């Protein structure tokens, strides 16, 4: 019994059992050692392949979202331009005009765009709202601008049957019967309609337009 315990003066006490420090420290065994498992080459290649596929699927969705956002922003520019032209015509009790803007390369306003051949006029650079002070020739002169909305013609095509419309003092629009602006970005399109009473409305965005 000597060496297997402690003498207390009246009796032997058994030696307490101590843990195996080698096992706890990982020496001589796997206990206490965290398991380390890495990805195999096959698993890594599979993960990369999935990431590539997901990114390719996301590209068309991002492109479609950008087209829709461009159409919506340009449609709102036109809508607000018509609204302002009509409101100014009513307030001033005189005709107010909205024409296809003509800009220099530095984006300085020159006036209204000249007429183009064909049944449709492309509003390439923007829309100009102005009030003809002399009310004599329905054409823009310096200092008559009320609003200028600029378009990104490389991304959005804007066209209408006329290059200029007139909002009359009573709110009606010329040409009589109203008109429709057609906007296109990529394969998507949007219509902004102006009714005979001069009120404008924004249509819905259509996909896969011919």
Give a short summary of the structure:
With 210 residues, the protein is an alpha+beta fold. 27% of the residues lie in helices and 28% in strands.
For the record, give the distance between the C-alpha atoms at the N and C termini, rounded to a whole number.
Answer: 102 Å
Q: What structural category characterises the helix and strand content? A: alpha+beta
Give the second-level CATH assignment, the architecture of the domain at 61-202: 3-Layer(bab) Sandwich
CATH superfamily of the domain at 61-202: minor pseudopilin epsh domain
Note the beta-strand portion. 25-35%
CATH class (first level) name of the domain at 61-202: Alpha Beta
Predict the CATH topology of the domain at 61-202.
minor pseudopilin epsh fold
Please describe the biggest sheet, giving its number of strands, its sense, and whether it closes into a barrel: 6 strands, antiparallel
Put simply, the count of helices is: 2
What value does the Rg take, in angstroms? 38 Å
Summed over residues and divided by their number, the pLDDT gives a mean of 83
Give helix and strand order, one letter per element, not per position.
EEHHEEEEEEEEEEE
Weakly predicted, low-confidence segments:
none
Could you tell me the number of beta strands?
13
Percent helix:
25-40%
């Amino acid at each position: 019994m000597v060496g297997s315990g402690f003498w207390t003066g009246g009796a032997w006490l058994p030696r307490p059992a101590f843990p195996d420090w080698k096992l706890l420290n990982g020496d001589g065994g796997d206990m206490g050692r965290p398991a380390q498992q890495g990805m195999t080459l096959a698993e890594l290649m599979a993960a990369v392949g999935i990431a590539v596929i997901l990114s390719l699927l996301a590209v068309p969705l991002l492109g479609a979202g950008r087209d829709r956002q461009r159409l919506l922003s340009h449609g709102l520019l036109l809508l607000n331009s018509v609204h302002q032209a009509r409101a100014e015509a009513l307030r001033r009790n005189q005709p107010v005009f909205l024409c296809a803007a003509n800009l220099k390369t530095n984006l300085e306003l020159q006036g209204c765009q000249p007429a183009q051949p064909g049944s449709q006029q492309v509003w390439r650079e923007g829309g100009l709202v102005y009030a003809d002070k002399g009310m004599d020739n329905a054409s823009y002169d310096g200092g008559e601008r009320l609003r200028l909305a600029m378009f990104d013609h490389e991304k959005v095509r804007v066209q209408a049957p006329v290059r200029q419309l007139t909002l009359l003092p009573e709110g009606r629009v010329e040409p009589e019967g109203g008109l429709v602006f057609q906007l296109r970005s990529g394969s998507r399109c949007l219509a902004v309609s102006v009714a005979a009473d001069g009120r404008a409305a924004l249509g819905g965005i259509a996909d896969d337009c011919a």
